[in-house]
Amino acid sequence: MIHRYIPKGDGEKEKMLETIGLTCMDDLFADIPDELRLKEPLDIPPAMSEIELLRHARKLGEKNSSLSTMTSFLGAGVYDHFVPLIIDHIISRSEFYTAYTPYQPEISQGTLQAIFEYQTLICRLTGMDISNASMYDGASAAAEALLIALSDKRKSDNVLISEGVHPQTLRVIRTYLHYRNVDIRVVPLKEGKTDLNAAKELVDEKTAGMLVQNPNFFGTLDDVSSFSEFCSDNKMVSVLSVDPISLALLEAPGKLGIDLVVGDGQSLGNGHNFGGPHFGFLAVKKKYMRKIPGRLVGISRDTNGKRAYVLTLQAREQHIRRHRATSNICSNMSLNALTASIYLNTLGKSGFREVASQSLSKAHYLYNGLLKTGAFQEVDSSPFFKEFRLKYNGCVGHLLRELRKRNILGGVDLGEYGHEGEILVAVTEKRTKEEMDQYIACVKEASA
Amino acid sequence: MNKVYYTKEHEWIKLQDGKGYVGLTDFAQDQLGDIVYVELPEVGTELEVGEAFGVVESVKSASDIFAPVSGEVVAVNEELEDSPELINDDAMENWLIQMSVEDEDDLENLMDEEEYNDFIGEE
């Protein structure tokens, strides 16, 4: 019988064996000692028909909880913002969905234009001059930005990183810098913000740059102007990691003197995607144009004087001076970045602002509601955007389990990150007043 | 006329008023073709002889530029930032950086014009 997925009949197999001078299939494994060879069939259940397999897989799938039945207040880098249906429809077009690095300008004007428009949107959001075509995720974008800082300052040997940077981002940076003999100095937080007085003690003339996240891992808003000033005073590159949604309400980092802006783009129309794929963005002031990692699409004119898009400024980094390049990365996350472009275009300026302002006010509604239950205490009184942390009077793990019973994913237990008894809660525009009131009621019950 | 010294990496250095003017040779600019970008160090950078201090990028390649002698960068030719093609126009006139020359003995290890012409004749 011909196997469903291995289209070779017995006759063909015999012919093939004959050609290579063997008599049976087992002869192929003659090099493996007899005592190591399996003599009976594998101990697995028999094959299923297609319909049986579908039923089986569906049953397994039902064991998972999904956001179609759960209400999520989870954040810590991945947010439950609404994804308009048009996005999946457009990115599922085969021209976008199946194409792999089609960068030849002769055949890829559509793809290149999409990337160019993405870059334009990121520049407008961040207030920077130039954005690349995207990176793997926010963490790798942050690490690449620090490489720019290190290559920008000759003989530098250390970088400063705020404690408010996502712990996973810090781990990726440590991996990136592991073999580069770079000292990573973590600047502590004070009252929820990066302690620049502590940074003064850590900075020296060999510090290449400093990375701050805003809003930080705990949701708190930092003082970006002072940070930017601190960096220029100490002649080092300022790198700010941002939540792109927050830029609908906050001043563009470029206007505050920041040199490099990075971030994770998941919240711009991408699903949770099980924590990835996301995409990272990286935008810089013109001064750093020649040190940008990855791809960059520029606009030009073809021989007939018509507008044309081309990859630009990649030669020396990726083809000629590889050993001296800031980075050899050539990858981007085009489909996820395209998702962000469609998202921003779908929402428009006012829609985008509304996402941000609803997230902001709903987060504050829940924050105040939770404090009023008496079961929580403030960790600090610094301003926050759509995510906040609170100290819980009881056991955070117990509270989260109680919430789960009511189909509420209540937040992230910060005990996992060394902050015992604290909870991190994110609120997006998707959350309704009913959902938040239910959360508050559940807290009252669980803490009674 | 001040004496000009040459390196095997195709830089020249000329002493004038106690400073060393450093540039690319005419042979180098010709080999590179149209120069589109020059990356130069900051004033105050300390250079060791043979240390890469900048990059010159042309339509067909990108190459490091090396310090012919040890010393400190005292000025960079800022005109090149907007008009890198000046090097193609006149490589000997359009210097890249001015640097202090710590030890004039460094110059003795370099080639004079005749030796350099022989050197590029062999290449």
CATH fold-level label of the largest domain in chain A = Aspartate Aminotransferase, domain 2
Biggest sheet descriptor of chain A: 7 strands, mixed
* Count of folded domains of chain A: 2
**What are the secondary-structure elements of chain B, in order, as H or E?**
EEEHEEEEEHHEHH
How many beta-strand runs of chain B? 9
Detailed description of the structure:
The complex is a heterodimer of chains A (about 450) and B (about 120). Chain A starts with 9 loop residues before the first helix and ends with a helix. Chain A has about 450 residues and is α/β, with parallel strands linked by helices. Chain A folds into 2 domains: about 70-80 and about 350-445, Aspartate Aminotransferase, domain 1, CATH 3.90.1150.10; about 85-340, Aspartate Aminotransferase, domain 2 (3-Layer(aba) Sandwich), CATH 3.40.640. Helices cover about 35% and strands about 15% of the residues of chain A. In chain A, helix 3 (about 85-90) runs antiparallel to helix 11, helix 11 crosses helix 13 and helix 12 (about 395-405) crosses helix 13. The mean pLDDT of chain A is about 90. In chain A, helix 7 (about 165-175) links the parallel strand 3 (about 160) and strand 4. Chain B is of the alpha+beta class and about 120 residues long. Chain B has a single domain (about 5-100), classed as Beta Barrel (OB fold (Dihydrolipoamide Acetyltransferase, E2P)). Chain B has 5 helices and 9 strands. Chains A and B meet through helix 10 of A and strand 6 of B.
Keywords:
heterodimer, A: 448 residues, alpha/beta, Aspartate Aminotransferase, domain 1, Aspartate Aminotransferase, domain 2, 2 domains, 17 strands, 37% helix, globular, B: 123 residues, alpha+beta, OB fold (Dihydrolipoamide Acetyltransferase, E2P), six-stranded antiparallel sheet, three-stranded antiparallel sheet, 5 helices, 9 strands, 24% helix, 36% strand
